[in-house]
């Protein structure tokens, strides 16, 4: 087989077969196929798309390029959850303890944040003592004992995807639905879950900007999951504005605790309860969404979800007292308010801009090597639809420095305040099964 012939085949609009895809992914991962040939192939895929069979073969080939985690030492149906990424997205921190309280094992590998989006692992590391690196044995033991453990992704998880993603980033081939879908699903398949709930975000802070594009991506990923015998559901949820009110690390832990206590942001709670409901259906605890939703609200109201969160934190070396004493979490030195210049209603909050503003304060990374400051971040005091009076605070900046004028200007730009009330925000646009 020669790579040049396969590029020609794909360029001509023909489908590649499983052996050809294995040859390409294996050869590229080993370094036998150079970047310039892989770039040409990615561009041909970008323009000509892929069939369902090609996408499944690509997913399996990328998953199999590194370690395939075997979770069989953990009993029960292992249900994973994945978000396509957003700003203020702390759903994993909330749904993990909820579904674990229902007896569903959560053996989760999560990523770090990059650019305007945050990462679950960074947020957890803001809890004093929390360890995100466990040996495989300790990971399995923690899940068997507490039904939940969350660790960092192994360096050898789908290395082909890592290499291809870096190449896509510099060849303008990231926003291709077959490539995004296979990239995400390869890591989920390699992580070993039996079933997967996908949270596909749309809006200003997300990869997908329209519901139609998000539906195609969601359908493509659900088809991959089903074709590889993983029961998969995709929800399409809003990322037009940040999720919840806190953006950062320690402050997102605080907000997650509030939701687990039953006193958190309403919209964030709604999305979390829905994601947890679908996870518990895939985990075969409930049959209907309504049944699941009611039980999940109970598990929050009776304190069980919060208790599970405490046990989970303690089992990974973290200080569980942060739950009742959030002041034990890192706190910023300065708090500055961003003041509304006029009366009106908040019509828009550009999630990407807000994510970048938080990153500039130090809550995120511009480059992989950057250090995070867990204490800093933003609190959105006003969200879409809220009434604002001139002089009121729309957002609070938590900072460890005083020169925040650039960040403040970005936040002003991200907020659009108009005299008319906008339509109600839709939280969940569709569910693809
Ligand atoms: N997230 C991924 O893991 N891969 C993509 O291609 C896009 C988003």
Automatic annotation (TrEMBL):
EC identifiers of the protein: 2.4.2.2
Keywords carried by this UniProt record: Glycosyltransferase, Transferase
Pyrimidine nucleoside phosphorylase C-terminal domain boundaries: 345-418
Domain of life where this protein originates: Bacteria
Catalyzed reactions per annotation: 2'-deoxyuridine + phosphate = 2-deoxy-alpha-D-ribose 1-phosphate + uracil; uridine + phosphate = alpha-D-ribose 1-phosphate + uracil; thymidine + phosphate = 2-deoxy-alpha-D-ribose 1-phosphate + thymine
Xref: SUPFAM superfamilies: Nucleoside phosphorylase/phosphoribosyltransferase catalytic domain, Nucleoside phosphorylase/phosphoribosyltransferase N-terminal domain, Pyrimidine nucleoside phosphorylase C-terminal domain
Family label: Belongs to the thymidine/pyrimidine-nucleoside phosphorylase family.
Record protein name field: Pyrimidine-nucleoside phosphorylase
Organism of provenance: Paenibacillus sedimenti
